[in-house]
Amino acid sequence: MLGVRMRSWEDTVLPASKAKLVEWMQGLWLELGEREFQTKVEVQLKTKTKVEWKRSEAEGVLKGTIGYTIGRWSAEKWEGSARLGTKRLVAPSVWVEPNPEYDPWERLRDSGLWGKLPERLRAEWGAPPIISIAHLDRAEAVQYAAQDADLCGQVGTLFEGMRRELTATSEDGQRGAWVVDEEDWDR
Asked: CA–CA separation, 167 vs 181, rounded Å?
């Protein structure tokens, strides 16, 4: 309208908000990788007991969400048997770019992650960061806010002039294109 194309709020705050969320998820994910949050599983083999450590469900949710948010390596695909010497690589691991439409907040909500976290980690890490202008650096936030306020003021002035023109009564008594009853006039 004024010859200006302004970045949308989402385009402005989403990259910084996603970065803050990824930072939160990575820190939490590293802590969940520690033994105290894993489950010890003993598997009875023929002659001995094998001990395995199973990661928590929350750790898996975080790992997947981080990968889909910032990109990830795909899993290699193998076929055949190593024991028989027929194992061969069918598809190598490749870099998978993140989908810009992927919503990590929705994934975390839908997974019920918060309820799966140990109480100590919930208290220590707090809730996940939300989409907010607070994650921008101060200069970028001020620039966006000032431009938004300036353009809103200019558009408001432009619309006010158009409204006056359309509702005015001419010298010969003709009313403008829009008829506004006297009780609805701005005072």
From this structure: 10
pLDDT at 116: 86
Sign of CA dihedral 78, 82, 85, 86: negative
Q: What is the pLDDT of residues 111-166, one digit of tens each?
A: 999 888 888 899 999 999 999 999 999 999 999 889 889 888 988 888 888 877 77
Q: What share of the chain is helix, strand, coil (3-state, %, to 5)?
A: 50, 15, 35
Q: 155 near 32, Cβ under 8 Å?
A: no
Q: Give me the residue spans of the domains in the chain.
A: 9-76+89-136
Calpha distance 159→12 (Å, rounded): 26
The rounded distance, in Å, linking the Cα atoms of 13 and 7 is 10
Q: What's the predicted TM-score (pTM) here? A: 0.71
